[in-house]
Write a structure and sequence with these properties.
Length: 230
């Protein structure tokens, strides 16, 4: 007798799988903490591996985050480097150089305001060894990072000029050139202090040597900005 053929029941169709839910947006506190880790990682990679190692992958690895977060929070590497340069980690912010009471600083006479600004500027750069390494490297190499930091410093200089002695710069045009020489000279001496101990008889590795330089700047400011005879 012929065996009846078995008819297989049709298998139920699987429901189409829904796409995975989008990752929830991080709370603001977590977002800021992650951004801070990423910014900190920029300095770590620079100090340890140098300019050539700076990239999204290296920074993300150091920060322990997915590189997507760098693009999400900063937009990309140039924007990240720009924010790092403006964060105060590389270059002291003008507001930080006014002291604990910016209003009191602004009320000082122009020569004293000028001298104190340089006091704080020197101290701030001496506390940033990575900045000194970058300044030294800039003399022989130019890349995306140095271009960004150069732009940030130029904006810093304009802001500092407005707050420091804008009226004095207008009355005494030569003061701008003198200020540029002092800013450049401080940077040069600090960069040289990485490798040498004495420059022109000045002890570059001691507080006493830098105190002597600060006093010279103060006396110069008093001489140059003395009230003009009517």
């Amino acid at each position: 007798m012929a065996t009846a053929s078995r008819v297989r029941a049709p298998r139920p169709r699987r429901a189409a799988s829904a796409p995975p839910p989008a990752a929830p947006e991080r709370p603001a506190r977590d977002r800021e903490a992650t951004k801070a880790r990423i910014l900190g990682a920029v300095g770590v990679v620079l100090a340890r591996d140098g300019f050539g190692a700076i990239g999204v992958n290296a920074i993300a690895k150091e920060a322990g985050v997915d590189k997507v977060l760098i693009y999400r929070y900063f937009g990309g590497l140039p924007e990240l480097l720009r924010e790092w340069g403006a964060s105060g980690r590389f270059w002291p912010r003008v507001a930080d150089l006014l002291g604990d009471d910016p209003a009191a600083f602004q009320r000082l006479a122009a020569p004293e305001r000028y001298a104190r600004f340089f006091d704080h500027f020197i101290d701030a750069l001496r506390e940033r060894p990575l900045t000194l390494e970058i300044l030294a490297a800039e003399m022989v190499e130019r890349n995306d990072l140095t271009a960004v930091l150069e732009s940030e410093r130029e904006a810093w200089g304009e802001e500092a000029s407005r707050l420091l002695a804008a009226d004095e710069f207008l009355r005494r045009p030569a003061l701008r050139g003198l200020t540029l020489l002092l800013v450049a000279g401080v940077q040069y001496l600090l960069v040289r202090s990485r490798k040498i101990r004495i420059f022109g008889g000045l002890e570059l590795k001691s507080d006493a040597g830098w105190d002597e330089l600060k006093e010279s700047i103060r006396r110069t400011a008093l001489a140059v900005m003395r009230p003009q005879a009517k």
